[in-house]
């Protein structure tokens, strides 16, 4: 605890009293190094045994000199590894080492370093979550937030034929194909929560087959009117922007007209709401 000299007229002299808020200071250890002079570049500092566990990127303050830890340090550590720093002024033996209050405020209010529940935090990441400030979007490792793949399994036949099976050709020429020329293919695709579908792309062995896109609902009858049309040439089809609701999805009709025409798959492009 820090003390200050205070004049006490009742006893006719000075007394030592605790400084205001001195009990709120977070002392970690004291400096146990000598010859830490202004202009010196340091990468570590000897200290008395630290009071708490500390983490890489924690910022400490020694009388105004800020240092950033370059490694985790367990309680009881007697040496702190720090990022290479040129000292702005002398550091004395036994100077108090504290948590930097400015950095503490930033981390408490906006958390840009360290970890939460074992997940690393930075200015634009939280564990597997990455924020792209230029595009104002969030990306999650292992999740496709800006597109949905349309896989061969997502297709089915419509009722134009005689119930012939849709099959996948698994040779040098691959893809989903109908059993008869009378049939066409349908794919249904969910629009993920918090996103808007903006484009649909379909790839096929024949690049001229018509593709029609509809917005449908799990609670309504009928497919309504098209919200976009194109072909199976792999060029993105601009559709009416369709935001996710609790019931809607996309229905994609691919108008093949021969059993030899194969569809490889597709993609729905998304934007985050």
Description:
There is one protein chain. With 273 residues, this protein is mainly beta. The protein is built from 1 helix and 24 strands. It folds into 3 domains: 3-110, Elongation Factor Tu (Ef-tu), domain 3 (Beta Barrel), CATH 2.40.30.20; 111-142, no CATH class; 147-272, Jelly Rolls (Sandwich), CATH 2.60.120. β1 (3-8) and β2 form a beta hairpin. The longest helix is centred in the middle third of the chain and has 10 residues, at 101-110. It is rod-shaped, with a radius of gyration of 33 Å. The two termini are 52 Å apart.
Which regions are unreliable across 5 or more consecutive residues at pLDDT < 50?
A: none
Instruction: Give a quick account of the main beta sheet: strands, pairing sense, barrel closure.
Output: 5 strands, antiparallel
What's the alpha carbon Rg, rounded to whole Å? 33 Å
CATH classification class of the largest domain: Mainly Beta
CATH fold field value of the largest domain: Jelly Rolls
Order of strands in the sheet with the most strands? Answer: 15-18-23-20-21
What structural class results from the helix and strand content? mainly beta
What percentage of amino acids are in beta strands? over 45%
């Amino acid at each position: 605890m820090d003390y200050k000299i205070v004049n006490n007229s009742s006893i006719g002299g000075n007394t030592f009293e605790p400084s205001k808020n001195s009990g709120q200071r977070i002392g970690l250890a004291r400096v146990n190094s000598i010859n830490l002079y202004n202009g010196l570049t340091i990468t570590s500092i000897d200290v008395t045994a630290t009071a708490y566990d500390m983490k890489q990127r924690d910022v400490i303050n020694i009388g105004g000199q800020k240092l950033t830890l370059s490694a985790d340090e367990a309680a009881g550590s007697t040496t702190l590894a720090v990022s290479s720093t040129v000292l702005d002024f002398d550091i004395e033996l036994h100077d108090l080492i504290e948590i930097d209050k400015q950095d503490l405020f930033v981390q408490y209010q906006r958390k840009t370093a360290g970890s939460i529940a074992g997940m690393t935090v930075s200015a634009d990441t939280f564990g597997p979550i990455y924020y792209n400030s230029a595009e104002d979007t969030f990306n999650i490792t292992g999740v496709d937030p800006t597109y949905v793949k349309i896989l061969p399994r997502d297709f089915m036949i419509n009722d134009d034929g005689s119930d012939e099976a849709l099959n996948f050709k698994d040779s040098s020429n691959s893809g989903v194909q109908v059993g008869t020329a009378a049939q066409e293919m349908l794919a249904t695709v969910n629009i993920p929560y918090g996103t808007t579908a903006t484009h649909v792309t379909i790839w096929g062995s024949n690049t001229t087959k018509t593709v029609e896109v509809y917005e449908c609902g799990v609670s309504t009858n009928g497919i309504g009117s098209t919200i976009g049309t194109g072909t199976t040439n792999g060029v993105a089809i601009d559709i009416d922007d369709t935001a996710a609701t609790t019931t809607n999805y996309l229905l994609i009709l691919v108008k093949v007209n021969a059993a030899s025409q194969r569809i490889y798959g597709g993609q729905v492009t998304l934007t985050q709401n």
